[in-house]
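Can you give me the bound-state structure? Components:
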Amino acid sequence: MTRDYSQFLPSSGTASDSPKRAPLDILGWQPFFAQQTDLEALEASPPVRVVEVHRNGLRVRGDGIEALIPPGPEATVGDWLLYNAELPSHSAVLERKSLFKRRAAGHDRSIQMIAANVDTAFVVTSCNNDFNVARLERFLALAFEADVTPVIVLTKADLCDDTAPFVEEAQRISARVPVVLLNARSEEPAAKLADWCAPGQTIAFLGTSGVGKSTLVNALFGSEQAETGAIREDDSRGRHTTTARQLHFTEAGLAILDTPGMRELQLAEAGDGLADLFADVVELATQCKFRDCAHESEPGCAVRAAIAAGTLDADRLERWRKLEAEERHNTASLAERRAYDKNFGKMIKTVTKAHKGRKGRK
Ligand SMILES: Nc1nc2c(ncn2[C@@H]2O[C@H](COP(=O)(O)OP(=O)(O)OP(=O)(O)O)[C@@H](O)[C@H]2O)c(=O)[nH]1
Ligand SMILES: [Mg+2]
Ligand SMILES: [Zn+2]
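Here's the bound-state model for the whole set.
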């Protein structure tokens, strides 16, 4: 099967002009990826996008390709691979525009990849008990770290008598993060999220269970794509209706990632993201008299001065401190684990070599 991939190289520009979008455009193919390859490589190993991760492999889609690639490539939902039809598990992963990851839950301290090549992450919460600034901050720090543009979406505006406090608190989190208030079950989402939903973009909905992520996916499609579920009346929590991360594609060329509710988000290797989210506090800290100021009782502390002057919120400083400490601790333990794994790997290699050596002498 020979396909004409020339139109998917960066110089052409014709694909986006045509009213009917080309298959790869629909999947979110962008010049950033095209630049990493060339016509010959594209023909030999066509690009495919990971649309779902299963225990038994990666579900991928390309131009005329639907396949399950056995475990092998270190890839996650949203990744682009160059499909090796003969040896699918050897398909190469293209360099990522962005990678959203978190520290895996439980005692396994490893990093878990959540999604690759997302342009905008809508961090979704509702105007009810789900709303929690500290949790939002975790999502946002991870998004900044991932090089993904974060937007806060407040759903269930229609069920709330006074939405203003929610909007105000969300807006106070960071000047860099826009806040959108809407009713996910109405016509509003398409218009209110339009700025981030141009053709060719990949967007993701993140948040806890029951906040309306799948409802928003359906609203952008204008049809039932993803299953949605009722929430419990007593605590406004969802029931984990969505169980897997899955990419959906609209005819207009928007790639939409729906994710299962995520509650536990531990920060690790997210120092830059955290600094982006608390850029104002980080900036203030550079004005403290002492470089290693703990912002407690040191003289000349610009951070405490800002709190006294009412320009910095004491609770916010506390949350920043907590997240910083957590991030540092997790990053250190991750580094420890990596060093241990590396040494262990070396030891195994040495033992295997020695064993082979002995065998050879026999
Ligand atoms: N009235 C109203 N109901 C909403 C809104 N957003 C979501 N819902 C309802 O809330 C319930 C949960 O919505 P889902 O879209 O399934 O939530 P989810 O975030 O995908 O949840 P999980 O898949 O469990 O992570 C459904 O009954 C939705 O109809 C909203 O803005 N207004
Ligand atoms: Mg869902
Ligand atoms: Zn200080």
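A couple of observations. The CA atoms of residues 61 and 195 lie 26 Å apart. The chain is about 35% helix and 20% strand.
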